[in-house]
Amino acid sequence: MTGDPIEIVNLRREFGAFVAVDDLTLDIKRNSFTGLLGPNGAGKSTTLKILTNLIHATSGSAYLNGVDVVKNPREALADVGTVVETPEFYPYLTPRQTLKYIGEIIGMGSESIKCQTEEILEKVKMTEWGDKKLGTFSKGMRQRIALGQALLNDPKVIILDEPTSGLDPRGMAEMREILKNLRNDTNDLTILMSSHMMHEVSDLCDRVAMVNHGKLLVHDDIDIVKAYADYRGITVRMLQEPTPEVLDRIKQLDNVVDAQRNGGNEAIVKIKGGAMEQEKLFNDIHGLGIRIFSLSEIENSLETIYLDLIKESR
């Protein structure tokens, strides 16, 4: 046991001959916002359902705040808010009535429910809709209420399964803004969110766990993961437009993986290595008699790393 609020140990889940989760071990650090990133069918939702005791693993264990979710689910989930399944609410209730009803079910006092309801409606940007019936709401609005009910009773851990899935662009933007504010405004909160959208994880999360075919590919701080690329991209600005012949000569240099024109007098050169190789590239290009105006490194995107890792895991 690591003492982290979420611990997954050698988790495996089989559906007949299909292995959805394959010996997955993962620890989620306290106060982190971790994105569980993978393509559809990678095992993300299955993992979160096991973690929240909606289904059982074939083998392995899952712990929330140090408590086994199978052996003692009530204690394990006591300080955890979840939005894992598609949210369903009584359509004739309002958001205020819904939060009151759920608060009573989980044993909150009436004053605490009343106070937290107003705070939560403000956090999820639903105050003006607090007395409207849920049956009239869009999917995006219902999703915000689902997030709101997960925030009842001030949980220290929140687990979200693709919270922007199926939303229109406006609904996605609103949900992401709410999650960003939640992360920035709360000091003691651990969030685990699954997603198949790389830009979403890159924008919201400080850590990422990439999975495919039920296996963990990488888990680390996003900035560290971005440094995993086997190559770095360099924008080379020349005094003259790079011709195909010039690009071919650059491709022959040491450590150069590729060189392509980027419009105007620019070329994108991919190299293996770090700062020393970048400095060598400058000198080598200069040695070819090619006049350079500047070199600048292109930051590796999470998408680049993700696609490379997915390709390797096939």
Task: Kindly describe this structure.
With 314 residues, the chain is α/β, with parallel strands linked by helices. The chain folds into 2 domains: 6-226, Rossmann fold (3-Layer(aba) Sandwich); 231-300, Alpha-Beta Plaits. Helices cover 35% and strands 29% of the residues. It has 11 helices and 14 strands. The strands form 3 sheets. The chain has a 6-stranded mixed sheet with strand order 6-7-8-3-9-10, sandwiched between helices. 35% of the residues are buried.
Which band does the percent of strand residues land in? 25-35%
Radius of gyration: 24 Å
Which geometry do the CA atoms define? elongated
Low-confidence stretches: none
| Mean pLDDT over the full residue set | 92
- Numbering strands along the chain, what is their spatial order in the largest sheet? 6-7-8-3-9-10
Distance between the termini: 31 Å
Largest sheet: 6 strands, mixed
Stated plainly, the CATH topology of the largest domain is called Rossmann fold
Structural class: alpha/beta
What is the strand tally? Answer: 14
Write out the CATH superfamily name of the largest domain: P-loop containing nucleotide triphosphate hydrolases
Assigned CATH class of the largest domain:
Alpha Beta
Q: Give the % helix.
A: 25-40%
What's the helix-strand series? EEEHEEHEHHHEHEHEEHEHEEHEH
Annotated CATH architecture of the largest domain: 3-Layer(aba) Sandwich
